[in-house]
Amino acid sequence: MVIVMIHGAEEEQINAVITRVEGAGLQAHVSRGMEQTVIGVIGDKRNYPEVLGLEVMPGVEKIVPILQPFKLASRTFKKENSLVQAGKLVIGGDTIHVMAGPCAVESREQLLETARQVKEAGASILRGGAFKPRTSPYSFQGLEEKGLKLLAEAREATGLHIVTEVMDTRAVEVVKEYTDIIQVGTRNMQNFVLLKEVSNVDKPVLLKRGLSATIEEWLMAAEYIMAGGNHNVIMCERGIRSFETYTRNTLDLCAIPVVKHLSHLPVIADPSHGIGKWRFVPAMARAAIAAGADGLLIEVHTSPETAWCDGPQSLNPVKFSAMMDDLRKIAKVMGKNL
Fold first, then answer.
1. Whole-model pTM?
2. Are residues 180 and 45 in the same domain?
């Protein structure tokens, strides 16, 4: 349920409601909007009778039940779009942020040159995998902490923020130390132990949609992170499995406006994984912005033909720069900056 406080409710009144809720063994999550404060109540429904009568407490305007299974991620809990702070950047506002870089960190030279080129083209965040979940156990698995240190060096050299993936609860602490945004990949979207672990981290979480996940399952994964206390979640549509074999996945552009209707969380798109072929990435990136995406995740490699992984879906810096020029035109039409 959501407890809607009256306009101008006093802090003492808000705290009294929180105390009542927590005293019943439930969690209270406060969302302070421009006009009103709402308190989301989650927990074991068997404890709900203990908080009946909340509507007569001073400062309470009304009680609204949340019908969706995802509570904190829903528009009922928060009507305004959430703005996620990542370092000096704000995701979900008037600026579309492009996260660009290689699938995997391969070497210092490769990463620093890619970082310089994507920064020059207009990207604000550097993506790069230090830990790589691969289908084959014999494929390159990433440079691990060495890769994280190289990402941090690239940030120092260019001013770009960093997003990189965490795969294991044991790696959360070391990834948190180096990155600005923690990515939970598609294969771990329903790794609930990992979701609970990143819910305790004071860093934004980029949550990729699972290979075959429904929109509701995806939002429920976000709910795990938010229920643990981390409300800084960025949803990432990266394509789902379908019967089509010509492309790597099927980029579900429908999911962007649907999730933005159901939830207040920012949504970005990953057309590189969504389609898997570099020549179609710019078209899908343009379409994602037109659909309302708050950002993009693009794979860029200085030499895609020699990339250690995902070369076929990576743009070279020249093609990436040309794509960015086109995206600025689409962003302007949408009333956004890029």
1. 0.92
2. no
